[in-house]
Amino acid sequence: MLLYSGRKALLSRPVTLVVFRAYSQKESSPRLKQNLKRAVDGDSEVFEDAKPRSRTTRERKARAQKAQTMMDFGFVLRPYMKEYFSNVNNLLQSTPNYLEEREIVGAFLGLSSLKQLENGYTVGQIVDKNLEKKRPAYAMHLCRMAKTQGTVGMNRLLQYLCDTDDFKHVFKVYNNLKKWGVPPNERTYSILTHAGVNADCRTYRTNIKILLQIYKDAMAKATSNTSKAIYTNSTLVSLCRFSLPQNAYEFYMQIPSTGRFSRDEITYSTMLNLVARQKNFSDFPELQNLNKIIWDEVNSRVAKKELKFTPRLIDSYCNSLCNRNFTNPYFEVDDLYHKHFNFNDSTIFDKKFPFTEVQLDILLKSCLYSRKYEQAVEIYHSLNNMPNVYLDLSCVHNFLRNFAFVPMLDFQVPRTLLDRMVKCGRSKGGKMKLTSLSIKLFWRAFQQSNSFDINVVDEMRDKVIPDFHIPVDDHIISEYASLYAHAALSNNPPSSQQLLYACKFLHDNISIISNVSKTQPNPLRIDRGLSKGIIMCRCALDDQANYEALKNGDLKWLVELCEKLKGLQIQLKETFKDNPVFKSALENKKSNESMIFHEKQKEMLRRYRKVIQNHEIHIAKSSMKNLKSVLKNHAMRTVAPNSNELKEHEVLEVS
């Protein structure tokens, strides 16, 4: 018997040993009494050991066996779960029975434990991981499993559907999650409001009804004025962004102008931005003077200390003034910015907002619409005194748009701006990336400047465009041809080699401007590129340095290029001859060209008369007598033989 007294399996021990060990305890426990009773009754198959270590080992084995069973079960269900969670529509239509296995499904969806469902922010983090992997169905079922703790995850799922333009599933997902016990909050209604109206005109009326119904439900559940303001502004933003301005205006007029719940700076900014986006006020005359009315209301409420000026509110009003329907906005915009913003430095004692690139962009836009192009040049020269301004691409483009209209612009102004852009773009981590529109605007500004250097254009073509990986499109080709045609007809034309290389560049990229069918979205730009390309080719063919090459047939490609450009231009005009916009643009182009020709003639005559007058005065002061005698002799030879003398005033008339 003593051979079995070691720590081996309890079931292999004799009954007498168990009885002896049980009675040898001074204080017998209920567990030992139960074991003794089982031994006396002859039930020696199952014994509970008195030592907790053996019990812990058995529990660990039981857990491991259960985990293995669940793993095997999950392995079997994995293909079915993968197919079911592959689409959101599957979750909206059916519910399989195996979803009752919460641990298996939770592990498949990314949970390490079901206790994670008790924390809403943990659920939101796991939802984010699934959305990063583009698994919206996984995220949706996680929110369903979390129930009351799934609000954060639901908001992130709805925002993901809005960002991916999946508006048709937004409200279905929201309704189902709400039915499954996930409560919405203020952020939920804000997201639904933005998704209520989308760009699809076919569902416009339905979306407006859904949007207004969501707003009505949200306002009914709102418990504070802050919540009401959030719902109202979100609805107004959606109406301004996607629907007709009339709906936004009617909704705006229903918002109280005074009180605890009333229009705030976001409400005013939204309506001012709506005015700024309008191209024509004939359909909505109520919006024409709305920006002035809003600004008067803002000033009155600021005076009553019901509202405060913010940079966003001031920018929105200034941006609304920079509209083609308003004239001379520069002075008002400049006065407002100097009143509320600090241009030189931002200090805590000044109580002014720092002047940044956002305000600079609007100020340059006001210069453009007010035709104060020289002011943009002055602003550019004072950039070094604006420490809070970091030039972005929009500011650079507006600078160049103004430079293109400055007469006799200093060439170094756009050149230094180009160097600044290239240096910033090539620096490590530089955010400034040039585009094809940037290249076009730079070349247009170069064309307007005096002492223009064509070598800068060649440098941009050979270095800047390849280094920044800028695709050559119709913007670049059209402006490049226009620039070289202008240079070829100027007093300082490019060399024959430069002109040939420019024509070769046009020849290599001719396919970009070869689309002259009705699918061409920019026929006017293509026509401009073709006409200027023809001028380039003609100038290259007329160059005496290329005479021998033409004679030997080495420049056959240049002749073919010129003929191809002519054929494309004829085909383009034939294709769009019934297009009223294209037709009127061609007529304006002809009238402008004739006007420019007549202006050049008048300028030449004016200069000629001025030179003659100056020469005449100089001669009269130096030797009036000699002039009279010379003119008299000349007139005597031209008059009749019987004319004996010539009067003094007749001599002056001849002169």
UniProtKB/TrEMBL annotation:
The UniProt entry, under Pfam families, shows: PPR_2 (PF13041)
Task: Kindly list the places in or outside the cell where this protein is found, as annotated in its UniProt entry.
Answer: Mitochondrion
Which GO terms of the cellular component aspect does the record hold? mitochondrion
Q: Which UniProt keywords apply?
A: Repeat
The entry's protein name is Mitochondrial group I intron splicing factor CCM1
Q: What lineage does the source organism belong to?
A: Eukaryota, Fungi, Dikarya, Ascomycota, Saccharomycotina
